[in-house]
Design brief:
mainly alpha; single chain
């Protein structure tokens, strides 16, 4: 096969592939979708915020997706607008916190992850600490999302940051970091978080022995052993003695 014929065949293949692609319906512009699902005045203000984010090199697409997601869930238009205002502010704070320690612009994914971690309770100083302490050149997108996941499971922000930094110093891969939140037991049913570093087995053992420990702790400051009666003194009756038992106190305090 001559080279001229080979190039002709390649050209035909390209034409066959381009034809069907050009006939496909293009995806609808998010701006048009927002105008369809939001009242006209709210849609225009939301689009202005998105344009502002784009002009400041913030991830504008994340704001678009946020607005469309909330609209699909039936969130009130005024609340959607307020949510975008707050998220835009968090994005700006996250960008500054990530850029200052490293001297380079963070990616849009890092800014979005930073904004989410701020929404969950991390502060700007902690985001900067992560950026300063992480290995040079390491993307902080996954670490920031993992910190947020740990906080969702009841870990305080400083402890969540410390655990992630430890893994980063050990050069853990993103997949290893992502598994970190799964290793942490969720909060107990009564709303009390487990102690840092407690494993699932430790937590189960604590739950098994919890009732006895709590009962004893409640009784110690409130119960005193009944003194032995002196000669000629009558021993307390059954009803009085029953009221002084730890079990009776424990039941009455519930």
């Amino acid at each position: 096969m001559t080279s001229r014929r080979m190039f002709a065949m390649l050209g035909a293949v390209v034409l066959l592939q381009v034809g069907p692609l050009s006939a496909q319906t293009p995806a609808k512009d998010p701006s048009d979708l927002l105008r369809e699902v939001l009242p006209a005045d709210v849609a225009e203000r939301v689009l202005e915020k998105i344009a502002l984010a784009r002009s400041r090199e913030l991830p504008a697409g994340a704001l678009e997706n946020r607005a469309l997601k909330f609209a699909a869930k039936g969130v009130k238009p005024a609340d959607i607008e307020k949510s975008l205002d707050e998220q835009l502010s968090r994005m700006e704070e996250a960008r500054v916190a990530l850029e200052s320690p490293r001297g380079r612009k963070p990616t849009g994914e890092e800014i979005e992850a930073g904004a989410e971690s701020l929404r969950k309770g991390l502060d700007g100083a902690q985001v900067s600490e992560l950026a300063k302490s992480a290995p040079s050149g390491r993307s902080l997108t996954v670490p920031l999302y993992v910190i947020g996941g740990l906080m969702d499971r009841g870990l305080p922000s400083d402890e969540a940051l410390h655990r992630v930094l430890e893994r980063l110093e050990a050069r853990a891969a993103d997949a290893e970091l992502a598994a970190l939140a799964a290793e942490l037991p969720a909060q107990a049913a009564d709303g009390q978080a487990h102690q840092p570093g407690m494993t699932g087995q430790d937590l189960a053992a604590t739950k098994r022995s919890g009732a006895a420990g709590v009962r004893g702790a409640e009784c110690r400051p409130r119960c005193r052993p009944t003194p032995e009666p002196t000669r000629g003194q009558r021993r307390p009756g059954r009803a009085v003695a029953a009221r002084a038992t730890p079990d009776r106190i424990d039941r009455s305090s519930r």
